[in-house]
Amino acid sequence: MAKEFWTLSEVIEIFEIKRQLLINLEEEEILCPRCSEDDGERLYSSEDMEILRITVLLIEELDVNLPGVDIILRMRRRMIDMRKQFDNILKDMADKMRERL
Question: How many domains does the chain have?
Fold first, then answer.
């Protein structure tokens, strides 16, 4: 079974980043980790990890600043949503075509 959540220390180790970057990403609302019920520790989901992977790539490889990262991630989310809508439209059209045959 795949891991569902990662702790702050695990995320820092995996991505080899500083804690301050995670704090900045939370302040900019780019990342919104959950807090565990036990001790209130931040927990990062697989979606958070994917956002962080893209963020680190944009910052380290392309020298994009945080506002730029935010814009790019919002555009990415919109593109994914639009693709899902388009896929649904195509599925509905295919279903209607099959019904007519």
Answer: 1
CATH number for the domain spanning 92: value is 1.10.1660.10
Residue 64 near residue 72 (C-beta atoms within 8 A): yes
Q: Which helix (H) or strand (E) holds 89?
A: helix 66-100
DSSP 30: S
Residue 69 has what pLDDT? 96
Are 57 and 21 in contact by the 8 Å Cβ rule? The answer is: no
| Predicted TM-score (pTM) above 0.85 | no
Quick check: 34 pLDDT over 70? yes
Query: Measured between alpha carbons, how far is residue 13 from residues 16, 31, 96 in Å?
Result: 5, 17, 51
The helix (run of H) or strand (run of E) holding residue 50 is: helix 46-62
Q: Which domain holds residue 69?
A: 5-100
| Residue whose tokens read 């180790």 | 13
